[in-house]
Amino acid sequence: MAFIDNIKGISTMIGMEGDDLKMTMNNIHIHGEIDQTPDGCWDREGLWTSGAMKDPKDLHPTMASALPIYKTHSAASWGSKVLFTDMFFHNWQSNKTVCGARQSIFGNNIGFSDYVAKQMFERVTFENVAQDAMAYLFDPPKKWINVTDCGNFECTGPRNLLFDFKYALYKGSPQPDSSSPSF
């Protein structure tokens, strides 16, 4: 079992091209704000979109320029599949922390400018989760306009996201506006 409390969020990547690249994570607990950290007031997401990149950075960086890992800026591998099972999101009671920073359960990886694999979830429990804390998805920045990569417009990875939930449960208070088990 993994317990995650991370300012940037969890994100997984596979570094290869292929037609059948599978990523699975299971039995994960991700908590919203519990206490303030002594080092400041930070925006945060619990889970970033995951995917496969053709040329990612090494998982174990060998020099400072390879950090941070999540800034891949590589073309995506189209054959990736992402499945999260038995996930628990606890105490995301607002989209703002006590100090006023933004927080949300789901966010898009700020390094994924290209295709992002479908994010599939099975048996997810939302406990004490407010509607406004569910997701923060950003628009592609203007600096992503690159004629050789995406033409004369921003790369659209952040606008083409699909989250698929099956067997979701909702507990406690608050709860999202919709409590459908599949959405």
Report on the architecture of this protein.
The protein has 183 residues and is mainly β. It has a domain at 2-6 and 21-32 and 43-55 and 77-171. The chain is built from one helix and eleven strands. It has one helix at 147-150; strands spanning 2-4, 13-15, 21-31, 44-48, 51-53, 80-92, 103-107, 119-129, 135-136, 163-166, 169-171. The strands form three sheets. Strands 1, 3, 6, 8, 10 and 11 form a six-stranded parallel sheet that branches. A three-stranded parallel sheet has the order 4-7-9, with no helix packed on it. The longest helix is centred in the last third of the chain and has 4 residues, at 147-150. It is globular. The two termini are 26 Å apart. Mean pLDDT is 78; it is low at 1-9.
Précis, in short:
The chain is built from one helix and eleven strands, in the order E-E-E-E-E-E-E-E-E-H-E-E. It is mainly β.
